[in-house]
Amino acid sequence: MNQNREYRTMVMNLPKSNEHDYVVEGYASTTEPYALFEDEGVTYYERIEPTAFDNADMSDVVFRLEHQGAVYARTKSGDLSLRPDAHGLHSRADLSRTQRSMDVWEEINAGHYSEMSFAFVVGKEHYERVSHTRVIDEIAKVYDVSPVAFPANPTTNIQARAFIDGEIEKERAERREAERREQLKKRIKILLEVQK
Questions:
Q1: Per-residue pLDDT, 121
Q2: Which of 34, 17, 43 shows the shortest CA–CA distance to 117?
Q3: Are 42 and 132 in contact (CB under 8 A)?
Q4: Beta strands at 80-84 and 73-74: parallel, antiparallel or unpaired
Q5: How many angstroms separate the CA atoms of 101 and 93, rounded?
Q6: Taking Cα atoms as reference points, which of 28, 32, 110, 16 lies closest to residue 63?
Q7: Interacting residues of 187 by C-beta distance below 8 A, sequence separation 6+
Q8: Is residue 159 within 8 Å of 6, Cβ to Cβ?
């Protein structure tokens, strides 16, 4: 199992209808493929399988801003709930318990934080060559869900990039070998024509 913590950012869905109920909910993760980065004209993607959270350790997940600092809700205390479904990992945080939590709700409700990120460790993964997609089959642990002002740049995520870089190198080696073989075929064809 990969022990490196990774971070992904998704757009948060904030209902505005129940003013001052101090509840924030949205998807910390979705099952839709998303672009990670582009390399030599090829876009590389990542997808989290709908079943990836089935055995994930979500026993003590915290809700905090920007993945750092104070804790405003927690699964252990019952004011944070996480529910995996076909769309992704739904999170619901009740921020009504402390004044600091209510202040965070005000910041989110004002639109200062419009995206949600989650920190996790990959349990199992594989690579789909045809679509250039890293597929996360299993999440081992979820550490936190966090509203963020700016999404993390996926190209700076070392773990995801390292995994896909290995696949990119394999693909490049195969392309170079195919090109070498094609050039060899052309040379042989020229030599055969010269000998006629």
A1: 93
A2: 34
A3: yes
A4: unpaired
A5: 10
A6: 28
A7: none
A8: yes
Tell me the backbone φ, ψ of residue 164, rounded to 5 degrees: -75, -35
Asked if 102 and 184 count as a contact pair (C-beta separation under 8 A), the reply is: no
Find all residues with CB under 8 Å of 71, minimum gap 6, and list them.
Answer: 62, 63, 64
Encode 91-115 in three state secondary structure.
Answer: EEEECCCCHHHHHHHHHHHCCCCCE
First to last CA, the chain: 61
User: CA triplet 115, 117, 120: central angle to 5 degrees?
Assistant: 170
Tell me, what's the pLDDT at 10?
Answer: 67
> Please, are residues 37 and 154 in contact by the beta-carbon 8 Å criterion?
yes
Question: Side chain identity at 116, as an amino acid letter?
Answer: M
The radius of gyration computed from the CA coordinates of the chain, to the nearest angstrom, equals 23
**Do 123 and 140 meet the contact criterion of CB atoms below 8 Å apart?**
yes
141-183 per-position pLDDT tens digit: 999 998 888 765 444 454 556 667 777 778 878 888 888 888 8
Contact yes or no for 53/84 (Cβ under 8 A) = yes
CA 179 to chain centre: 34
The pTM of this model reads 0.77
